[in-house]
Write a structure and sequence with these properties.
- The protein is α+β, with helices and mostly antiparallel strands.
- Helices cover 30% and strands 23% of the residues.
- It has 10 helices and 12 strands.
- Strands 1, 2, 5, 6, 7, 8, 9, 10, 11 and 12 form a 10-stranded antiparallel sheet that branches.
- The radius of gyration is 19 Å and the shape is globular.
- Bound molecules: protoporphyrin IX containing FE.
- The site of protoporphyrin IX containing FE has 28 residues, from strand 7, helix 7, strand 10 and helix 9.
Amino acid sequence: MGVMSYSPQPAILDFGTSQHTYLEFDLISEDKTAAIDHLLTLVATSVSTKTGAVIAVGVRPELWAEIGEEAIPGLEGFNDDLLGEKGFVMPATQHDIALWIHGAQRDSVFDLSRKMIRELAAVFTLAESTDGWVYQHNRDLTGFVDGTENPSPLEAPAIIAAATGGSVLLLQRWKHEADKWESLDVERQEAVIGRTKDTDKELENLPENSHVARTDQEDFGDMLRRNTAYGDAANHGTMFVGVAAERSIMHTMLESMAGITHGIRDALTFFSHPETGSYYYLPPAERLQQALEAADTEDDE
Ligand code: HEM
């Protein structure tokens, strides 16, 4: 086996944290190159064992390519609404950069998030902010175990690495229609997901409109999901956080869920709907390391 010449940003594979914040920003500065330099330096110098929180940075693919950084060829943002069966819409709400900050405690994540917003304010303006949290160890707010068919952290780096380095992030906030969902008995909920609720086993007679049948990784390719619960007792849902080597792995899953591919809409989409949707390029850790070295050199001068 060859030695990988690049590795994912540490925060992507830092498991076991319970408090997450997702920030999306729009560029307000004219000088795109300087803005991204500032961002990478800020993030690189904030990756620390001392803050109690980790941070990953993503950039809108077209912006990354435009400033001449090494990009995944042809990678695009979430630029058009995805129109599905029976009026179902996955809205495109693309922004310029995303920060995913997480840690064991709310205060560390809060402080690091505030610092980022403040220190980016001259060049990026905050457009979306969502707080995520862990529900019952590994379940989403449908009550089902979420993440079962994920690769192990040992396999994940190779699975999520694009051929040219880096990875693709899909951020999509799904609001649950909780009353409607909770009015289903457990058997009907299991038919929607395609797995058993308590014991988390794939159903033997998997309904073709079940979520698991619509997103089967054997059909679309493997990916890493790091979803969290978001919201309060009244308004809540799933912050979908997907990482893959190619955008098409996740986008064909979305098309399949929306009923575009086979005319079979994912049953889950009748109980939850996306409010946001954006793709970001996640540069490899080596690119942040480069920014850190550049910052250290400047300090020495
Ligand atoms: C409301 C939003 C969503 C919820 C609550 C949700 C929940 C779940 C649950 C409970 C499972 C079964 C356990 C597991 O393997 O993790 C699952 C599987 C999966 N989901 Fe989702 N999901 C959501 C959205 C999405 C989206 C938007 C995608 C793709 C872009 C996706 C991709 C997958 C994949 C790839 C699997 C594993 C399928 C397999 O067995 O290979 N999910 N999801």
